[in-house]
């Protein structure tokens, strides 16, 4: 196909501030996970598909398949208001869990 660019699992990303590898970041109305640590204004990569273990809001109990969102603080929550769609919980996570496996929206 002449107009094929790339598979799309990983996209270029340039942060405005330093960001550690494994950090979830908002990309407009989607979420990606930074592949390797990046300095401010350094071109790098974010993974936008697949399952990633991400930090979550402590009070949220999540069931497998629940829609999840990224807060401005970089935490996964079940609250959609004022948050960025991240995907869905790939596995359940209890309220006292600090992380959740998220199937990214891609």
Brief account:
By secondary structure, the protein is mostly beta strands.
What's the order of the H and E elements?
A: EEEEEEEEE
Dominant shape = globular
**Count of distinct strands:** 9
What structural class do you assign from the helix and strand content?
mainly beta
Mean pLDDT: 96
Low-confidence stretches: none
What separation lies between the terminal Cα atoms? 21 Å
Number of helices: 0
Describe the SSE topology.
Blueprint: E1 10-13, E2 24-27, E3 30-34, E4 44-47, E5 51-55, E6 67-70, E7 76-77, E8 84-89, E9 99-104
Antiparallel strand pairs: 1-4, 2-3, 3-4, 5-9, 6-7, 6-8, 8-9
Describe this structure in words.
The protein is an all-beta fold and about 110 residues long. It contains no helices and 9 strands. A 5-stranded antiparallel sheet has the order 5-9-8-6-7, with no helix packed on it. Strands 1-4-3-2 form a 4-stranded antiparallel sheet, with no helix packed on it. The chain is globular, with a radius of gyration of 14 Å. The model has no long low-confidence stretch (mean pLDDT about 95).
